[in-house]
Amino acid sequence: MHILIVEDNALVASGIRTGLELHSLHADIAPTAAAAQSHIGARTYDACVLDLGLPDGNGLDLLRRWRAAGLAMPVLILTARGTLQDKVAGFEEGTDDYLTKPFDLPELALRLQALVRRAGGRASDRVTLGACEIDMAGASVHLRGQPVELSRREWALLEALVQARGRVLSTAQLHDRLYGLDGEVGSNTVNVHVHHLRKKLGAGVVDTVRGLGFRLGEGCGADLPHPTA
């Protein structure tokens, strides 16, 4: 799960990013409205943490522009402005949640996970896929009841496919989810991670759609041998 943090206080932003990473949520930081707009134009985010007091404008104005442009990304406003009037204004402009400073990082992480879960049409953080049980909140996978260790990139790939709910994701889209704005990564890396994921969870965990990309499969673990008793 990849989060955009729009926060001009570098210390606060860094603390949020560090805290979210402890909950398997990776984040980019935008200290201004202009930087946030640039990030949004360059990649897709699962959710956004939005401060209102930005050095080059009001966060509400930024949110208004996003919603007017049809951007459906879940947004959580995180601000020191805690009056009822402030909250009403935030929801009227299209925020999905509102949290006031000071705040607890575990609560922020849980709220973001809930926003992304609802946006993906899931009632639970646990997804059953063939012989696999996937815990989206805990970033863990069990195959036939046994834990499977995935690398950070392998998890990011599986997470993206689960959140896509059967839609085909292109290699470029998956590359963006795995590596973000890093342009130094080789073009074949997505295929490598798909191969590793299939090796650990079975060939049916990822379907290749020729000429288009990849989507989540349904046969997780079907072709893998059962552990001996």
From TrEMBL:
Chain ranges passing through the membrane: none
Q: Which Gene Ontology cellular component terms are annotated?
A: cytosol; protein-DNA complex
Coarsely, its chief localization is cytoplasm
The protein's matches in InterPro entries, at most eight in alphabetical order, are given as: CheY-like_superfamily, OmpR/PhoB-type_DNA-bd, Sig_transdc_resp-reg_receiver, WalR-like, WH-like_DNA-bd_sf
Name its GO BP terms in alphabetical order: regulation of DNA-templated transcription
OmpR/PhoB-type domain: which residues? Answer: 124-218
Question: Which GO-annotated molecular functions does the record name?
Answer: phosphorelay response regulator activity; transcription cis-regulatory region binding
Q: Which domain of life is it from?
A: Bacteria
Span of domain Response regulatory:
2-116
From the Swiss-Prot or TrEMBL record, give the protein name: DNA-binding response regulator, OmpR family, contains REC and winged-helix (WHTH) domain
One Pfam family, short name: Response_reg
Keywords for this protein: Cytoplasm, DNA-binding, Phosphoprotein, Transcription, Transcription regulation, Two-component regulatory system
Where is this protein found? Cytoplasm
Which ranges of the sequence are annotated as binding DNA?
124-218
